[in-house]
Amino acid sequence: MNKIKKCLFPAAGYGTRFLPATKAIPKEMLPVLTKPLLQYGVEEAIEAGMDTMAIVTGRGKRSIEDHFDISYELEHQIKGTAKESYLTEIRSVINACTFSYTRQVEMKGLGHAILTGETLIGTEPFAVVLADDLCDNEDDGVLKQMTELYEKYKCCIIAVEEIPPEDSNKYGVIAGDTIKDSSYTKGSLIRVNDMVEKPEPKDAPSNLAIIGRYILTPDIFDVLRETKPGKGGEIQITDALLEMAKIGKVIAYKFDGKRFDCGSVDGFVEATNYFYTKEKS
């Protein structure tokens, strides 16, 4: 299999928890300080060696395409002024990779969004980033850690973290057996044998929840095509990955780093305060 060069960003959701702000602004474009959530995710993918960003959008998401494009009028207006430096970061992102887009016409779940992106991905392994899970690391980013794992294990890799048991009904939750790998010390590895989408606390197989970072092999598309609607009547990536796990092809990675749930107001405010303090220190 090839090295991972493509990263898929499902970005078609409505962002209802941030209404009315997200009535006209995609939640992926909400800024933490001066940078939108989606740009943080793209920069993490670039750090991991990826140069092709595939974005699944929906109606009202045009500003995503505009953000990752040249604004000639704006650049002309600020050229030669102190404000020109404000565009340095986004210019470097635009120059470092290519962007392609497709639309998810109906909101049928994360699994359906990933399947919609097949036309942009093709037949190679790829990463998936959910932009509202914002991650930060002092050393290697989460995706870079995961691509290194993929190079060794050549199977689906999912990022997990410990959560309070009472929050299990907000996540996909996994269970499995610890992999003893003395050559890898950044985080712990689990060979997944069970996963449940948003179980009630009493039904959760563990306190390890899947967060928005995945490395997937292209055969996931065939599995998704056969996956029936599950929790909430949606096609769940958790259900598709469970089929892969049954044949030993999914590893959960308890990653090294800090993650903020920017899909919630509390997590968004926490991330803003954290990055503000970090920038000022």
Structure description:
The protein has 281 residues and is an alpha/beta fold. It has a single domain (6-280), classed as Alpha-Beta Complex (Spore Coat Polysaccharide Biosynthesis Protein SpsA, Chain A), CATH 3.90.550.10. Helix content is 31%, strand content 26%. It has 10 helices and 13 strands. It has a 5-stranded mixed β-barrel with strand order 8-11-9-10-12. A two-stranded antiparallel ribbon has the order 2-3. A two-stranded antiparallel ribbon has the order 7-13. Strand 9 and strand 10 (188-197) form a beta hairpin. Helix 5 (110-116) packs across helix 8 and helix 8 packs across helix 9. The protein is globular, with a radius of gyration of 19 Å. The N and C termini lie far apart (42 Å). The mean pLDDT is 91.
What keyword list fits this structure?
281 residues; Spore Coat Polysaccharide Biosynthesis Protein SpsA, Chain A; 31% helix
Helix and strand topology:
Layout: E1 6-10, E2 31-32, E3 35-36, H1 37-47, E4 52-57, H2 62-67, H3 72-78, H4 88-96, E5 98-103, H5 110-116, H6 118-121, E6 126-129, E7 133-136, H7 142-153, E8 156-162, E9 172-179, E10 188-197, E11 208-216, H8 220-226, H9 237-245, E12 250-254, E13 258-261, H10 265-280
Helix pairs in contact: 5-8, 8-9
